[in-house]
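Notes, p. 3: input format for complexes.
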Amino acid sequence: MKKKLKARSPVKAAASPAVKKVAARKPPAPVPKVKKVSVRQAQEMMDILCRTYPNAECELNFRNDFELLIAVILSAQCTDATVNKVTPHLFKRFPTPKALAEAPLDEIKQIIRPTGFFNAKAQNIQKCAISLVERFGGRVPTTLEEMTTLAGVGRKTANAVLGVAHGMPGWTVDTHVQRLSRRMGLTGNDDPVRIEQDLQKLYPGQDWSKLSITMIWHGRRMCFARKPDCPRCPINHICPSSLV
Ligand code: SF4
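Output follows (244 residues plus iron/sulfur cluster):
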């Protein structure tokens, strides 16, 4: 397995220069409320996006569910490309949950430093590894309930790992999925859990993981936070937020 995914969650700690640069940027304007689309329109938009990005996949590199889990935690407030640069070294030094659980914390910090918020992230991934060893026999659990007991793992991260690594249904409601869901009229909610519930009602469970990644791809390539490229967008004839 090899791929990528991106997650964003607030993590408090000293920020790297790259992260400070990101933080200094003006935050995107809030997404205004739009009229919700019909189920048929919601399905048509997603059909078009799936045809537009037939090869959409998680963009984090990983070889197993443990590596994916750690990579997704590290991707908070950081690009997948940067995570992909540090994880080969990290997993070469500490290839298993046991090795990471017993690793010197300062060495973990040094390795993951480019991902930003490295103090908090280092503590989280080591606590997570310790839990995997002590409570799950050194394996990554395969239920949402168990996953979300791990340090640094919320519903978004758990759904991403379960969906990508194990093919289990789950919506990864990251910043892109939140923004696009509102712009596309799939939800009127701001809360990620309520957005997830709205999306669950619109699409069949077996598609949730694939559709999450497809929306993330569209958010990264066209429906940008600050200036969506509506004229080029293949769903601009349906999307209620289209600027065309
Ligand atoms: S039409 Fe514009 S706002 Fe709607 S999904 Fe496309 S890029 Fe985003």
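The radius of gyration is 18 Å.
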